[in-house]
Automatic annotation (TrEMBL), chain A:
One of its GO terms (molecular function) is acyl-CoA dehydrogenase activity. Residues 6-118 form the Acyl-CoA dehydrogenase/oxidase N-terminal domain. Belongs to the acyl-CoA dehydrogenase family. Signal peptide: none annotated. The lineage of its organism: Bacteria, Pseudomonadati, Pseudomonadota, Alphaproteobacteria, Hyphomicrobiales. Its cofactor is FAD. It holds the Pfam family Acyl-CoA_dh_N. This is Acyl-CoA dehydrogenase. InterPro entries: Acyl-CoA_Oxase/DH_mid-dom, Acyl-CoA_Oxase/DH_mid-dom_sf, AcylCo_DH-like_C, AcylCo_DH/oxidase_C, AcylCoA_DH/ox_N, AcylCoA_DH/ox_N_sf, AcylCoA_DH/oxidase_NM_dom_sf. Keywords: FAD, Flavoprotein, Oxidoreductase. Residues 220-357 form the Acyl-CoA dehydrogenase/oxidase C-terminal domain. Residues 145-210 form the Acyl-CoA oxidase/dehydrogenase middle domain. PANTHER family: ACYL-COA DEHYDROGENASE (PTHR43884), ACYL-COA DEHYDROGENASE FADE28 (PTHR43884:SF20).
From TrEMBL, chain B:
Pfam families: Acyl-CoA_dh_1, Acyl-CoA_dh_M, Acyl-CoA_dh_N. The keyword Oxidoreductase applies. Keywords: FAD, Flavoprotein, Oxidoreductase. Residues 134-228 form the Acyl-CoA oxidase/dehydrogenase middle domain. This is Acyl-CoA dehydrogenase. It comes from Bradyrhizobium frederickii. GO terms for molecular function: flavin adenine dinucleotide binding; oxidoreductase activity, acting on the CH-CH group of donors. PANTHER family: ACYL-COA DEHYDROGENASE, ACYL-COA DEHYDROGENASE FADE34.
Amino acid sequence: MNFDFSDDQKQLRDQARKFLAEKCSPKAVRVVLDGKAPYDRELWKGLAEMGFLGVAIPEEFGGAGAGHLELCVIAEEMGRANAPVPFSSTVYLAAEALLIAGSEAQKKKWLPAIASGEAIGTLALFEGKGNPSPKNVKLTAANGALNGVKKPVPDGAIADFAVVAARTGSSGRDSDISLFLVDLKAGGVEVKSLTNLDPTRGQAEITFKDAKAEPLGSAGEGWSILTEVLDRAAVLCAFEQVGGADRALEMGRDYALDRIAFGRQIGSFQAVKHMLADMYVSATLARSNSYYGAWALSTNAAELSEAAAAARISATQAFQHCAKNNIQVHGGMGFTWEFDCHMYYRRANAMALGLGSLSYWEDQLIDRMRKKNAA
Amino acid sequence: MNFDDTPQEAEFRATARAWIAANAPKQYEEELRKSSLGRTVLKNANILDVAKAWQKKKADAGWACLHWPKEYGGRGSSPIERVIWQQEEGPFGQLSRMFIIGHGMCGPTMMAFAREEHKRTYLPPLASGEKVWCQLFSEPAGGSDVAGLRTRAEKDGDDWIVNGQKIWTSGAHYSDYGILLTRTDPTVPKHKGLTMFFLDMKSPGVEVRPIKQASGASDFNEVYFTNVRIPDHQRLGEVGDGWNVSLTTLMNERSAIGAAVSTGFPELFEYCSSLMLDDGPAIEDRAVRSKLANWAVKASGLKYTSMRAISALSKGERPGPENSIGKLVAGSMIQDVATYALDLQGANGVISGEDAELAGRFQAMLLRAPGTRVEGGTDEIMRNIIAERVLGLPGDIRVDKDVPFNKIPTKGRN
């Protein structure tokens, strides 16, 4: 049994950690946090040069042609560094949708541009409140033109193109939904930035008025493609969350060792020790569930749907838990803008919603477990 | 990343599987499979007899105590082979329950500290299950703080005379031997005045009394010592070095990797899958699904944490500290799961025993659960261990550290 990353993959993780420690310090993150830039352009360029943006993109489309396990270890480091770049929307959502359903021409057009850092992509799925569901897709597509409003769209204000979920039927079935590719720099597209919990990753409202769009995948296949995209993204985001949870735990641990109160290190009080031990427990459970997700993703296993939901739930809980208790360990200072704790708290809570909320994934997990048991 | 055996592992697995298929007591398989809640009962046979027979059969064929050296009754297997054996033994592994303490803790302590002649005499019958061992550490005044124990051993010629009381001794009533931690010097700080021995449980002056637990069952005992004589050659380690010797024992207790921990989740999921509530199937109820999903990811998280440790063994590496979370997570989870299963039964959940839902399976789980959060290290001790050994946080400030044992207060208030 070898339920672990290979030495090469661990080496890649170390390389990514080192690179991000240098290029993505908390100070650099704060430039975006403070609204001075929409994302870290230099870092984005650097990630492209390192080959990280295209690590799971095949060589024929300009990528490194490694695989999803390699992408998982990079994702973990992106989460650990709280990187203020459109990595998840471009790499987990847009690129994966293209890899699953794109035509040869579409892949040729967009994937090399993603790998080189020239194109930012995203997925426009949500239309206001609600979780992923065909019935929540109201935006229409007819004669190659889209009409409707999507929000929130992750990194929508800086994206060059979007994969858009649109309604092409009214039968009440999943087959009413189709996917489209839209060049966001073309006509008929209006983009408005929205303030959001985590300013280091933007959110936008995009209005489509007769916007020109080309189909991505077959008509009526949109929902099944989306389901697979979301499952893959759930695993990849879980690694970001695991990285973030680990970093928040480390910050809390370090502060507990440094801070003296009542004449002793606060990390010597059991109330604090036990809080940190519980953070370690949830981070460990999340890591193990995420490893299983990584295995399922990298082997294209039938277990992916269940593994992805479990990784999603476990990693979301762990990151939220570690981020909020990291602030608690820091006491009042943890609640200042100056300390970095709130960056992880913001990211943890934003990520908990991005692919659909916990209650949605809980529902998915139970459905998928039942299906497996019935089979 | 894969879950596959290496060629050597696959070969070992095939050999083990074939031997088990040909030799295991299949007539009990069904009953053993269902006994996942910490208690193994056979309707028409004495479990001790069945367990001893299976152990002896394994020993005769070289399948007992796989990780022990051959000369002491083991197989000299690698850690990963031991895990594979456990996986293949499956429900029949339940029969090893009565030997866990002896094989997992007493044996390794004997191996590290007993004289060679004693090892050759005592270890093979321990491996083969012909002799059963227990561990006599905890006392009424020394549970989590085991170094606070008061059982005295005083030198008398070539012997030691032991007086005192032990508690929570699993299996003392059917044990032949035990390892015993005693206080030999009460005038030095508590960790420094301890000495370890092994003894014959049939020695004059040893009295075993079962404890009736909160659950009504009796899995543990009190053991009383009145002028029990132990020869000095049965001492394990130096006089006054008993604390270090006991750490060897306890490290072995906590290093059991690949042993499945019960969480109650598979039982709850199965139950909810067929249960009808007032307004429909439980499994379609939003609140039930949310609870199940949260426990599902804990159960799977534990499973894959264990797989990570096994992978480290497979590569010949030392597993990381991840496995230390198992008991902490599973202990409180099984309690919560049982509480919730009864909640789903409404007022009728109060009925236990044969007349209850599923013959009282979850009621029994509820009543047994508090013990799982205490035995083998309380939740609080487990959190301390994680905080100190994994996260590197400071140890507790110990006010009794440099105080002679006989000067430490014995009462909380007067």
